Amino acid sequence: MSKRDSVNSNVILDEITIQRKLDRIAYEIVENNLDEKELILIGVKDNGFRLAQQLRDKLQNIGKLKITLASVKLDKRNPMAKPIELDIDASAVKNKAVVLVDDVAHSGKTLLYAMKPLLEHTPSKIQIAVLVDRKHKRFPVTADFVGLLLSTGAHEQVILEMDKGTFAYLVD
Question: Measured on CA atoms in the order 76, 112, 119, 21, is the torsion positive or negative?
Fold first, then answer.
């Protein structure tokens, strides 16, 4: 039984809508990176990386940009508890455009810490893509590409389920 089955929840994005939102985000990424030869997509493990994989496939069908896919892994609750792990050499971002991808932006904390190893190697720019932005910012991180901007209560959660079909739901 998933968390969605056991609590009061509402589906906010179904699989078809999510794919449409990712299509739109992919086109926005291309439009905002027309001068780039290469784009590095870095997905926050786990769901952010899965979304980054889908975006890579969509981007490869749209344009001629070389796409490098990578992931970043960190403890989302306590980012300083363990080392932040990038699965590519961080120096690979030097002078490159980077798009950091996550499923849900809440306070900005996860995205801020996910950028930390990138900043040491001076990318030409870092952009952020999220499927859902909740706008409860406590850290100065704003998404450049957003599938859905959603006003929620502080007690609510947005969960992206990707194991049995892809959908996002709001948990009360």
Answer: positive
Length of the chain: 172
pTM for this structure? 0.90
Q: What is the pLDDT along the chain (172 residues), one digit of tens a residue?
A: 344 444 567 888 889 999 999 999 999 999 999 999 999 999 999 999 999 999 999 999 997 889 999 999 999 888 888 999 999 998 899 999 999 999 999 888 999 999 999 998 999 999 999 999 987 778 889 999 999 998 877 777 888 888 766 667 677 6
For the chain, the structural domain boundaries read 15-150
> Which residue type is seen at 134?
R
Fold classification of 15-150 (topology level): Rossmann fold (3.40.50)
Could you count the other beta carbons within 10 Å of the beta carbon of residue 89? 10
Give me 63's structure tokens.
Answer: 């344009």
